[in-house]
Amino acid sequence: MAIVPLVAAKGSAGVTTAALTLAAVWPEGRGAPVVVECDPGGGDVAARFGLEVIPGVVSLAAELERSGPADPADCGNQVGGHTQELPGGLRILVAPTSPEEMRLPLERLAEDLPRLAQAKADFMVDCGRLEASAMRQHTAVLRLIQRCGLVVVVVRPELAALQHLNVWLPTLRSLDVDVLALLSGRGPYSPEEIGDTMDLRVIGALPHDPAAADVVCGASGSRPDRSALFRAARPACAAIAAVLARSQSAPVAPTPLEEAVP
Hints:
16% strand, 10 helices
């Protein structure tokens, strides 16, 4: 299957909410995706829902360190043994809140997560905010993005946020991946204006809808399929799925990366 990494160029652009929302409305033909927290700054979901951090990315990384990825036919079982279920039914690999505790698991997942994509599920990967050090070296997140073949940048349609994204675009494009933009919240610039000005494919715009975001994770509320958030997320999912369909069916081999990021 495939891995869809989501990142933000600056600040809190709602990457976690975007990852959970896209996973909730992911095309049925591709199966139910697994959400993976790979934020170098640490995860949020376990603390938010009172979950333990094990099982999660720490326990999966430890297993991978010991034995490596399972045979393709058994990858789903290997991943599934480390997921937890949110109240709304989404399966997730949670991460610790500490950046230091996340450092070694993230290094391991950057190497092996693409191999695990041979499981019968796509991965929606919350990579959080891009680190400044990534402009000088191949961080674990950049290596993961390069092996996935695409990246979805979640950005607010505001001047400051778009300027930060513009600074990051050369680095992301140097990875030779499809760079897609997903707008978060309202701003003075339309998706068409942003796409034309920045020569960037904008796949959609998610409204700021806290109530619907809570429904994504199983909190009480109105039917999620009637929310503006879910309606906006579906065409974004379709656009991502179309990019995945055009890419090679086999995962990218995790070979050593020798070229430095400009």
